[in-house]
Amino acid sequence: MSNYKQELNNSAAIRQEIQRFEGVHPNIYAVYELLQRIPDHDLQNQIRDHIINIEDSFVNSQEWTLSKSVPEIRLGILGSVTSGKSALVHRYLTGSYVREESPEGGRFKKEVVVDGQSFLLLIRDEGGPPEIEFSNWVDGVIFVFSLDDETSFHAIYNYYRRLVQHRSLNNLPLVLVGTQDSICSERPRVIFDDRAKKLANDLKRCVYYESCSTYGLNVDHVFHDISHKISTLRRKLDYVTPPSGHLSTPTTPLHRSASTSSAIYHNNGMRNGNGKSLHGGESSLSISSLLTPTPLRKSSRRKSNLFSGRKASDSEEKRRLNDLGFGRNIPVKQGWLMKRTSKGKISNKEWKKKYVALEDEGNLTYYSNMHDYMENINKKSLSVVKTTIKVPGKHPAVVTKSSPTSKTDENSEFHLISMDGISWQFLSSCSVERDEWVTAIERQIMISLQNISSTKPNPCKRLFNEIAGNTLCVDCGAPDPTWVSLNLGCLMCIECSGIHRNLGTHISRVRSLELDDWPVEFTKILDKTGNLISNSIWEGLLNNDVMKPDPHGTREARESFIRDKYERKLFLPKLPAKYAADISSSLCYAIADGNSQLTMHLLAHASRDDVNRSVGSERQAPLHVASSVADLAVVQLLLWSRADPTQLDALNQTPISIAEQNGHWECHRVMQASLSNNLPQSSKSRNNSNRSESGRPNVNYMYTSAI
Question: How far is CA 219 from CA 17, 286, 556, 703, in A?
């Protein structure tokens, strides 16, 4: 009980210290504004210098340490002025992106909660190489470089050597971060994974992350990881809080950008530009919404571009746009590709040459010729965020008069496939060019998924989180999962959802609770299932010898576990003998009884023949039964398992006709919609010979990562 009270006191003390910062800075802003009214520039500069000294002394003070019991984490940020480190810090503190770098660095404070304990996180963004005072002050260091800048990459080696000269790194956690924000068509990526991982290995095998401050990718995770490492190391070393006479703040002069927020401050509290309270990102790290404000420097030699006020930034941006005028956005990637669109067999379509442009909004647009591209006319577009990108594996080359595949690598194709089965197939001149396109599209998918925010909250999210087990990711246990595997009936975090997307829709159909629409058949599935039921099936044989990934584990550990679980089915229990003997009959009985758990278990073992086999004297398949009892969730699950909605029973009735006769219109709608995309080939030839085929090509795909 005493520890709990102490923790509350620590958290309150930290918040009071941050509030102290926020309470003083608006007055400092006001003084800087009043300085502009002084006509004597010499007097104006003298007063400004005095204010700067007062502000620096204020920032460097530690009034909260009067309690002597509040724990702190001292974190240093090192990187060149082109590394993107200022944007990384700003995104973490405010949740917003600012492109400009702050050459002077800065000092910032934030409350963090690590393993249930509150800490005052002191962030020191260093404006140059580490000096001895900085090196002795930090508890951990984040090295930052830009993936499109060689200079910033090589600067890390220099900073690391300087750090080693000043102190031993045996008990100093390090994290290496490569930033993606500056990558564009004019500034392509030059630092790839092999070089970045070698650098991480050279830096005493530290952890490496790629981050995107523009859209928040891995930003919170970076700060959470380093804070957790510092906290863990302290426990191992039996860390003791410094004695009362020791102040944790450095004694060297501050870099002048002392604290930060892009928020607008009013007398009634701190709010962002929309009038709403500011919060951190999606990380499991608990972060106070109290942010440190920005000193608005009124001298060009002192002003930090990173943390200038929102009002000033808006006016500067407006002036910049007026100077530049309005023009066409430069594509992320563009060039000539061969293209064909398929809803049926590949050999029925011809390759056509198109000029293709990938835009930063996530749209892929193609034109018939360069003139159309230059005039921006006669174009067709598709949103890549609504597709899965795949690279064909081994399959026979198709050689026709219109096909250039006879002269190119058969593996230089990539396909974009929508959820309704439409396939846009592109052919590049070589596999290297293909990989460049795939990488660019994957990044746009990732950025779009990170950036899109729902304009209105999904009421399903609250309902789904009330179902047993749904408050944690089904695979790694991360809190507040916002992604769903529809056919598996479970919720997961965004990191695990990226791996599920790679499995293919035949294994896992991924959808966002916040970004996607939710028709009634999807909500019905999660109402009947959930993480508890899903894991009782897919982890039925999981024992203590197998370690599940945790929320902060590596992607490799997640992917290995998820593939073992769903693709290789290593933890899936066998069916009891009475069910395994006839899966089709067992499915019919489970559906009729409304046994969701047994139905999901049977579907995990069922083949396409199992879900389409007729049983009993009525010769009904499982889809007939689901249609009769109006079980919309099971109807959709069976259709995803390639059940045939046109199959006839002993009375010459199809599942669709049964739904229509009984007034089960939602079931009828779902089955009718499936005919254009998921109807088995045998039924097409028998009942729908005049309908255009929409089955997917028989291609062995190597799935690429979309997140």
Answer: 24, 14, 19, 26
Whether 328 is in a domain gets the answer no
Name 44's Cβ contacts closer than 8 Å, sequence gap at least 6: 35, 36, 38
Q: What is the pTM of this model?
A: 0.42
Instruction: Give CA–CA dist 146/140, Å, rounded.
Output: 20
Range of the domain at 15: 2-318
Residues in the chain: 707
Same domain, 305 and 344: no
CATH number at residue 143: 3.40.50.300
Write down the pLDDT at residue 634: 94
Query: Is residue 425 included in any domain, yes or no?
Result: yes
96-140 residue pLDDT tens: 888 777 777 778 888 888 887 888 888 999 888 999 888 988 999
Q: Residue 218: CB partners within 8 Å, gap ≥ 6? A: 177, 209, 210, 211, 212
Confidence (pLDDT) at 573: 93
Task: Say how many C-beta atoms besides its own lie within 10 A of residue 541's C-beta.
Answer: 12
Find where tokens 């100093």 sit: 172
- How far apart (Å, rounded) are the C-alpha atoms in residues 661 and 667? 11
Does 384 lie in the same domain as 272?
no
Burial class (CB in 10 A: 0-12, 13-18, 19+), 378: exposed
Query: How far, in Å, CA of 289 to CA of 292, rounded?
Result: 10
**Beta strand segments in 87-147, E:** 106-114, 117-125, 140-146
More confident residue, 360 or 163: 163
Of 558, 573, 588, at which residue does a domain stop? 573
Looking at the structure, do residues 375 and 296 belong to the same domain, yes or no? no
Model confidence over 616-659: pLDDT tens digits?
888 999 999 999 999 999 999 999 999 999 999 999 999 999 99
Does 97 map to a domain? yes
Enter the tokens of residue 441.
Answer: 């599209």
Total domains in the fold of the chain: 4
Mean of the pLDDT values across residues 537-541? 92
User: Domain check: are 260 and 286 in the same one?
Assistant: yes
For 391-419, b where at least 16 C-beta lie within 10 A, e where not — what string?
Answer: bbeeeeeeeeeebebeebebebbbbbbee
Give me the residue label for tokens 């959470």: 224
Compute the average pLDDT of residues 537-543: 91
CB of 139 within 8 A of CB of 290?
A: no
**Bridge pairing between strands 423-427 and 413-418:** antiparallel
Cβ 360 vs Cβ 329: under 8 Å: yes
Mean pLDDT of 47-68: 61
Find, among 297, 291, 220, the residue nearest to 255 by Cα: 297
Cα 337 from Cα 357, distance rounded (Å): 10
According to DSSP, the residues that pair with 286 across neighbouring strands are 113
Is residue 194 assigned to a domain? yes
DSSP codes joined into one string, 367-385: ESSHHHHHHT-S-EEEEGG
Given pLDDT bands bounded at 50, 70 and 90, which one contains residue 360?
A: confident
What is the CATH number for 674?
1.25.40.20
The token pair at 403 is 């096909």
Instruction: Tell how strand 174-179 and strand 140-146 pair up.
Output: parallel
